[in-house]
Write a structure and sequence with these properties.
The complex is a heterodimer. By secondary structure, chain A is mostly helical. Chain A contains 14 helices and no strands. The longest helix of chain A has 36 residues. Chain A is globular and about 85 Å long. The mean pLDDT of chain B is 86. In chain B, helix 3 packs parallel to helix 8, helix 9 runs parallel beside helix 17 and helix 15 packs parallel to helix 16. Chain B has 17 helices and 4 strands. In chain B, 69% of the residues lie in helices and 3% in strands. By secondary structure, chain B is mainly alpha-helical. The chains are: A mainly alpha, B mainly alpha. Chains A and B meet through helix 1, helix 2, helix 7, helix 8 and helix 12 of A and helix 11, helix 12, helix 15 and helix 17 of B.
């Protein structure tokens, strides 16, 4: 077991390295620091001194990979690659282009993101799985047919319309919840209800369909027929056998997204003005703050790779048939 | 003078490839069987008619040209317009001052109106074009809409009748029966392919299209937006953007997914390791962020090469193409993994082993024996991805990393209209129009993709 885990962790290292090099190429080679400076200072009427000054302030005036002018190890460390990219491995994100500490921002903004993402995931799972079980329970009836038809319809509506519609109906017409905003501590709950409802409802279409196919695969199997033959009622069969065996794909599907809950949802957060990491990223994209976007790309990838790792481990924990190779 | 944009050319290449594929598939029995299954499904045929209608508009909107200036010989205007634009010229050029509600003859906001006797009045002014032919809009509007609407409906219906008759003639030739017999069979819904459902859908499309088109000459049927542009025109123009994003993306996904997936599965060993590493790395970067990074870089590139993108249309076109490619870069990994797994299975099949034992070259085995047998996966995945790409466009436009803000797209329509929900009275028409057009397309695409999957997936075959 330990050996397996160690091997999986080691496998993550080249992946992270690949992500790091890819982002470095995207942000510094394809698109040089000079371009970034001009983007920020304006394309026209900008002197070369201003560009140099901008680069120097942010440490972008070093060579990319190899510094000839430095002494000793400085030849490697006094470069953009070492200063900007290697630090990411230790989760040292450095400063944003506007001068703020990115690491501190992330630590502070991750909590609102979690506050909305975790309840959304849990409530979403409960609602979608129960609805899917209901559809399976009423299979081969009109109820199932119309249920699936409704799922396809719900799937075909853009997420944006769920948000706009929800804000308009619940927030503006019925005045049940605030339309957007956030508060610290326990007061935040008031603001979280609406995004929570919307993200759960918006996911019904694809979620229910997905869980339903998982359940249907199990329902066809022989052990389910045996369970019915020995006289178990349909609910007993569904909860005791079908749900239990379908838990393996469900669980592993959930585990892979767990780490990504930290980075939050871009769209939800920015629509509801929740000061989480999602809206942080969107603001960075809009202000063309390359340092933050780079940090978030790396963080997101690292968390995804962590998710893959956890998925592999959870497989071995829940499914005894999977042996550690 | 014809002046095709880059996306136009690629779109037509894609369509040509698609036509060739259909022509080939018609001759092969094992490919005709699943398509017949698709054709027998009523929901699939109804959605196909809707999709074809959208495609028709997108094709019209993809033939761009420089219009000739009237009166001057051999002079072309600088701006590039499409056939659809020139077709919709009356609707395109009637720009009001600002918002106005659907079918309204009055503007959305009050302003000072100078009356003939010199005094001034604070009231809703009449629109310059919308309902301008009416002398007393409050009394006449309903009757006028009904009259013009019926006229448009009649025009649409006559086009429909001609098409329906053509279909009946074709069927009667094919089935070697009389024309009346063929008509009754279709009308009673007794044909193998659900022609009646398809024709009813076509009637709805042509009827509504005829009405909207006819009414559009006199009113703003879906209102106008902030700068007074007709919302109906914008929604129709957005069809091309949506379809292109859904289809051109395959230019990036298919070569990557097919090439890498088959190579990894067939050669295994270090080739497999490298390719798996490549797609896991790419997959681990969150899609939206990768797109955002790429779009930022593209903006810098365009700013640096300002001379190459002289006109606004060129700039928007390049951005659309780039967006399609980058969306493709982020979405090929799923299909690649599927293809790899399938190839791993196929390479152990007897016929592949026989080919290898007979000394057939590797390249030939890949093209003749592996490729045709994984193609159903490609088809299913392209069909399923289409709707999610159309939906993605709207979200990306909201984050400002979608298509160019000057380009008509449903995402841009939603984006510019969402802030107006706070106004009183609510400006709902832009949102409603974008919703209707997008929802119809995505729903049709979803239903059709489901039918394609059911017909082609061997695990679902009965």
């Amino acid at each position: 077991m330990i050996r397996y885990i160690v091997r999986r962790v080691l496998y993550a290292v080249p992946l992270l390295l690949g992500v790091n090099i890819l982002t470095f190429l995207l942000f510094f080679v394809v698109n040089t620091p000079d371009d970034m400076a001009r983007m920020h200072l304006g394309q026209k009427h900008v002197t070369q001194e201003a560009v140099e000054g901008w680069k120097h302030e942010r440490g972008y005036d070093l060579p990319l990979f190899w510094n000839d002018r430095a002494e000793g190890t400085g030849k490697v460390t006094q470069t953009i690659f070492y200063q900007k990219s290697v630090g990411l491995f230790m989760f040292r994100f450095g400063r944003s282009d506007s001068g703020r500490e990115i690491g501190a921002d992330i630590r502070q903004r991750m909590w609102p993101s979690l506050a909305i993402a975790v309840p959304s995931l849990i409530v979403g799972l409960l609602v979608h799985i129960s609805l899917a079980l209901l559809l399976v329970f009423f299979r081969l009836t009109y109820l199932e047919f119309w249920g699936i038809a409704l799922c396809v319809v719900l799937m075909s509506i853009s997420f944006l319309f769920y948000i706009i519609g929800g804000q308009y109906v619940l927030g503006k017409l019925l005045q049940l919840t605030p339309i957007s905003g956030y508060d610290s501590g326990i007061n935040a709950i008031r603001f979280l209800i609406l995004p929570l409802i919307i993200s759960v409802v918006a996911g019904i279409g694809s979620g229910v369909r997905w869980y339903r196919t998982l359940f249907l695969e199990e329902v066809e199997k022989d052990y389910v027929r045996t369970a019915r033959a020995k006289g178990l009622s349909e609910p007993q069969v569904l909860f005791g056998h079908v749900l239990k065996n379908a838990m393996i794909p469900i669980l592993t599907g959930v585990v892979v997204v767990l780490p990504l809950l930290f980075t939050g949802s871009l769209i939800t957060e920015s629509f509801f003005a929740i000061p989480g990491l999602g809206s942080y990223t969107i603001d960075a994209i809009n202000q063309q703050d390359f340092a933050i976007v780079r940090a978030m790309v790396f963080l997101g990838s690292a968390l995804y790779i962590l998710g893959l790792l956890l998925t592999d481990l959870s497989y071995t924990l829940v499914d005894p048939r999977v042996r550690l190779g | 003078m014809l002046k095709l944009l880059w996306t136009d050319i690629l779109f037509f290449i894609l369509l040509a490839g698609f036509t060739v594929a259909i022509a080939r598939a018609r001759r092969l029995e094992h490919l005709r069987r699943p398509w017949r299954k698709v054709a027998r499904s009523r929901s699939a045929m109804v959605s196909l008619v809707i999709l074809l209608a959208y495609l028709f508009i997108a094709i019209l909107d993809s033939i761009h040209f420089h219009p000739r200036i009237e009166g001057e010989n051999g002079q072309y205007r600088g701006e590039v317009i499409s056939v659809l634009d020139s077709w919709m010229t009356p609707i395109r050029t009637r720009v009001e001052k600002t918002y106005s509600a659907p079918f309204s003859s009055y503007a959305y906001a009050k302003e000072m109106i100078r009356q003939p006797d010199g005094t001034q009045r604070w009231d809703y002014p009449r629109l310059r074009y919308g309902g301008a032919h009416l002398s007393d809009p409050e009394r006449e509007t309903m009757g006028d809409i009904l009259r013009i609407g019926t006229e448009g409906l009649a025009k649409g219906a006559s086009v429909w009748a001609a098409l329906a008759l053509l279909l009946a003639v074709w069927r009667s030739r094919l089935d070697r029966i009389g024309l009346t017999e063929s008509l009754t069979l279709i009308a009673r819904g007794r044909t193998e392919i659900p022609w009646r459902a398809a024709l009813l859908t076509l009637f709805l499309i042509l009827g509504i299209g005829g009405m909207l088109g006819e009414l559009g000459l006199y009113y703003h049927v879906l209102g106008t937006d902030k700068v007074g542009e007709d919302v109906f025109y914008q929604s129709v123009k957005s069809i091309r953007t949506g379809l292109l994003i859904g289809t051109l993306t395959t230019f990036a996904t298919l070569p990557l997914a097919l090439g890498f997936g088959i190579l990894a599965g067939y050669f295994r060993g270090w080739v497999d390791d490298v390719i798996q590493y490549l797609y896991t790395t790419l997959n681990s970067i969150p899609g939206v962020l990768l797109i955002a990074a790429a779009m930022l870089i593209m903006q810098v590139y365009m700013a640096r090469h300002e001379d190459d993108f002289a006109s606004l249309a060129l700039r928007a076109d390049f951005r659309l193409l780039f967006l399609c490619l980058i969306l493709g870069m982020t979405s090929w990994t799923g299909l690649c993994r599927l293809l790899r797994a399938e190839t791993l299975k196929l390479r152990e099949m007897e016929y592949v082993q026989a080919a290898r034992a007979l000394g057939v070259r590797q390249g030939v085995i890949l093209v003749r024996h592996i490729l045709p047998n994984v193609f159903h996966l490609v088809l299913i995945s392209v069909a399923l991805d289409f709707s999610s790409l159309v939906l993605a466009e709207a979200v990306l436009s909201y984050v400002n990393i979608g298509v160019d803000p000057t380009m008509e797209s449903w995402g841009n329509m939603i984006n510019s209209a969402r802030l107006e929900m706070a106004r009183d009275p609510v400006v709902w028409w832009s949102l409603a129009a974008a919703f209707l057009f997008m929802f119809t397309l995505v729903l049709a695409a979803n239903l059709f993709a489901d039918a394609v999957r059911d017909a082609f997936d061997p695990r679902r075959a009965e």
